Amino acid sequence: LNQNTLARVSLKELAEQVADPFRAAAEDKGLAFSIAVTATLTVETDREKLQRILAHLLENALKFTTVGAISISAAAEPGGRVHFIVSDTGEGMSPETVRRLFHEFFQVDNPGRDPHRGLGLGLVIGRRLASQLGGQLHASSELHHGSTFRLDLPRQPPRTNPVWRRPRNRFSPIYRRGGAPCRPTAKSPSEPSSPP
Known about the structure:
The chain is an alpha+beta fold. Helix content is 27%, strand content 26%. The chain is built from four helices and nine strands. The protein has helices spanning 11-28, 47-63, 95-100, 122-132; strands at residues 6-10, 32-37, 42-46, 69-77, 81-88, 136-141, 147-154, 176-177, 180-181. It has a five-stranded mixed sheet. The chain has a two-stranded antiparallel sheet with strand order 1-3. A hairpin with a 5-residue loop joins strand 6 and strand 7 (147-154). Helix 1 packs parallel to helix 2 and helix 2 packs antiparallel against helix 4. The longest helix has 18 residues, at 11-28.
């Protein structure tokens, strides 16, 4: 993660902001829409990436739900983690579809591969973004009984350790003497050896 993009994020405020346009669209379709997030729940993360993940999950839920409800919730978990859950009462998916859901270019509603209906990369990108945030994105569903997407995240961003690289040879300037960088020098073949 880029340290410059990290910020303390209120999950309730973020959920409300992301959900606002989808709530209006859901109401236009006659769907119930609910948000359940504790006001004090926060994480330190990349807000933009988290927002992109949630927006795509809500977009899919709205797209495939014609009757019933859509909900988004978040809660704390043991071990310093939190989870978001986006669920719907839409068409649902078969086990085979769920297995292929995060494959590149796979689209549930586009077997003819019409490019005007998207590329089938939304969930793939969502899972990669989740991984970059130190989290995981999973899906569960039952055909004709809706779908649930769960995003697990750490409350603190993953810390990366500096990578130690072995010097290519003993003349590398990485070698140090007394804490100062130096470059070991080789004795010239013509230089006489000191007597024992």
